[in-house]
Design goal:
binds zinc ion; single chain; alpha+beta; 3-stranded mixed β-sheet; 5-stranded mixed β-sheet
Amino acid sequence: MKIKKLSIASLLLSAMIMSCTNGAKKNEATQQKKDSVVATQTEIMADCFADIQVLRYDVPGFADLSLKQKQLAYYLYEAGLCGRDIFWDQKYKYSLTIRKTLETILTTYSGDKNSEDYKKFLEYSKRVFFANGIHHHYSNAKMLPDFSFDYFKELVSKSDNAKLPLEGMKIDEFTKMLQPILFDPKVDPKAVDLSANVDNVKASAGNFYEGVTQKEVESYYAGLIKKGEKEQPSWGLNTKLMKENGKMVEKAWKSGGMYGAAIDKIIFWLEKASTVAENDVQKTTLEALIKFYKSGDLKDFDDYSISWVGDTASRVDVVNGYIEVYHDALQKKGGYESVVSMKDLEATKRIAAIAKEAQWFENHSPISDNHKKKTVKGISAKVITVIGECGDNAPSTPIGINLPNSEWIREKHGSKSVSLSNIVYSYNFARAKSPTIGEFGASQEVKDRVAKYGPLSGDLETDMHEVIGHASGQINKGVSTPDVTLKNYAGTLEEARADLVGLYYIMDQKLVDIGVSPSIEVGKAQYDYYIMNGLMTQLVRIKEGDNLEEAHMRNRQMNAGWVFEKGKKDNVIERVSKDGKTYFKINDYNKLRDLFGQLLKEIQRIKSEGDFNAGKNLVENYGVKVDQALLKEVHQRMDKLNVAPYMGFIQPKLVPVMEGDKISNVKIENNESFMDQMLRYGKDYGYLPVKN
Ligand code: ZN
């Protein structure tokens, strides 16, 4: 199964890197975008803590929707939030206990709230909210509190015990139970552990399996696959697999099953939404999703996905369900998510121009002819304005989405690719403040070029990654899907492949010819950034001594590291040391493009042939190990810049205006603080018990 999300780090420049110390800045574009319903200017920079910058985004155009469309968006938005607890529980089985404990302390603690310890507790709570659990949203590593266990006990004892999720325990037992979970670095240290030569199921903290080994899981699902049948469901996508009385049992996430209490609320709002659907296709799609939530049958999920792909006419759209699989080391279990959006009619024109030429791009790709698609099908490209996100998509969000994930549905029915324009806008705004390029850019020419073309080249790379990247190439007849053949390397290789399609074409005159790029210089700006980030700046996200775990980070280092090494004999990229600082300077952009093409060809071959060993070697040799001296240098240089490496968002709030019992309008409010939003969500959408 593929990973379809771009992390924010694949944005050009250091989108994710900006100063924590900047004061809140006004969103200058709010004035330009007069159609926004936000009465006052939205403060984009909202909060900053630890390694996180929290932003806001506007929803331009929302006020222009019809009342029916606004109602539809509102119902879908509520449906999305109702599943928030599911994602928390999926990530870790103690997540809800921990969150409810933090919420209780935050709202009822009667002790000193001005102490240094309490500030540390506040920061820890925000970090946990941001990550939907105690494992870092990006690095997957467990986040340890900066305060002591004794202080934690004091916090608990001076809070309203009636509101704690004690489950019959006494306070002492309760805090003792939480001690290793919160404070012991050796207990469940990683949300997802993709290391070679360990049991990836046992080593991962995710709540997708219990009492089973990786071998047992693999043989269980291998047993479900019907040989020779292509149109199979994504086995295991919506269940927890565990052993009961020595037998393997799947607990389905459905109405009446695991997570049923939250799912029934989701269904309630989806049913309302289906009554105000924009057209019959959308109505059928929403009904199919409701059917799936009721039955838990993956065949129903496929029917829903097929119907959803076919709905290209609706202005308001939604992604809702168990979608991306990268929280599971074996890439089978779907994390709950929701994205409610509306088409951005203006920006859609750019991405459509690229999608229109998809066959040209496929035909001219450097991959082997027998790995090319004869007809590139159903890429429906559009740019969307996000209205609200939840679960796996919030507070940290993708900037591009390409769904559905099922290979055979993609091949037969196509896929929808979207780029999230208002999210990207907020990033660009924050990025404009970033001092990172000034520190790491290899020359003044590079810095000037990135300043001039950075935002556009970031948009184009994202567009191509999603629209022609993931959609290109085909798997040889008789070869299984990448989750089966490439296993834990599938995600990294797929993201690498999509990145490389974008990198190969961003230097192509074709983009200038079809009117989406003013100059080849745009491509150079992307190369400058990609090499700088892949070989250096992204390292700020990991600790000294660590290697790379996350699929996107692995893919970027692999791509950049491979072309660096292969280009050495021609000095394509030069490693320069100046005043004790390292820079990577590109000497030959055309040769670099050729190298990206060669690597694309090889990774496509690996996917098409299912060559596990070649895939493993590429990732392990180039994508995992980190140059520790360089890592140390990056941290030292970044520390001086005082930057927060990650960004995420506060969601706008949709507020229905009532006339009697009828909704007469839906307004957007965008002034809630991050903490207030997290506490409100916990209070209003906390539908699941702490034990599921
Ligand atoms: Zn991707």
